[in-house]
Write a structure and sequence with these properties.
The chain is of the alpha/beta class and 262 residues long. It contains ten helices and eight strands. It starts with a strand and ends with a helix. The structure holds phosphoenolpyruvate.
């Protein structure tokens, strides 16, 4: 069976509800003929979630950008798994670089969220990635392995199939001031992550998709996806125009499908 390409976007704090709905309706039309070959996902702001789910039903996986580790309580400004579940959202981004570095979330916070997501039957997309300083000190592999161990280490091997996805997003590669990782560097780090996942979850670690994210754009997407061990792409800015996103998807898909990782 051909493997599916994991691909999607997080719109951060950019689109309003009507903008997000227009975007996802258009993506729904554009990818219609290839959707069976994709694990396509869309992660808009909280106020766009319900209308996005209503717009595309189960044809596109809709995810939240964050989630609290409790169902209820004195957590002003947080969103509970019960609230997401009620509107049909069971996919959540955990530990995005901006959560870790702007809002100072720790691996311990991410671990509690990952645990809570698993307890509620959610699929988590856990982001890990080293800072420029860690990379320059030769600590990229160690820091990413540590993040994985600390954030996802409480999950049992039997809990991960289909429920844990990883995004490797080097902090220095993300956003406007980011420099995209070279395809060979991304490949090497994906290998490190796969090894860590096997250590944590045994053979089930082999089935966890690992996506690359960080300044993916029309000129580097094909090179990145052609590399062994890269199961998909998590794209920010270059994905926010539907036609442009669709054309990236159509360029990378055949390259991904023709790859032989064995
Ligand atoms: C991101 O923020 O996760 C991301 C990948 O953004 P960009 O593609 O814009 O670097």
């Amino acid at each position: 069976m051909t493997r599916k390409l994991y691909i999607g976007t997080n719109t951060k704090m950019f689109q309003t509800g009507s903008e997000a709905e227009a975007f996802i309706r258009r993506m729904d039309e554009l990818i219609d003929d290839i959707r069976d070959r994709l694990e396509f996902f869309f992660i808009p702001s909280y106020t766009s979630l319900e209308r996005s789910v209503k717009a595309v039903g189960d044809r596109i996986r809709i995810g939240a950008q964050n989630m609290a580790w409790e169902e209820r309580g004195q957590f002003t400004g947080e969103i509970s798994p019960l609230m997401l579940d009620e509107i049909g959202v069971r996919f959540v981004l955990i530990g995005h670089s901006e959560r870790r570095h702007v809002f100072r979330e720790t691996d311990e916070d991410e671990a509690r969220k990952i645990r809570c997501a698993a307890d509620h039957g959610f699929t988590s997309l856990l982001c890990v990635g080293e800072t420029a300083e860690q990379k320059n000190s030769g600590l990229a592999a160690a820091s990413v392995m540590e993040q994985l161990k600390q954030s996802a280490g409480t999950l049992k091997a039997e809990e991960v199939p289909g429920k844990l996805w990883i995004a490797y997003e080097p902090v220095w590669a993300i956003g406007k001031s980011g420099v995209p990782a070279s395809a060979s560097y991304a490949e090497e780090m994906h290998g490190v992550i796969r090894t860590a996942l096997r250590e944590l979850f045994g053979p089930n670690g082999d089935d966890i998709p690992i996506l690359y994210g960080g300044s993916v754009n029309p000129s580097n997407a094909v090179d990145i996806i052609s590399r062994k061990g890269i199961d998909g792409l998590f794209i920010g800015r270059s994905a926010w125009d539907p036609e442009r996103f669709d054309s990236i998807i159509r360029e990378v898909l055949p390259v991904f499908e023709s790859r032989n990782d064995d």
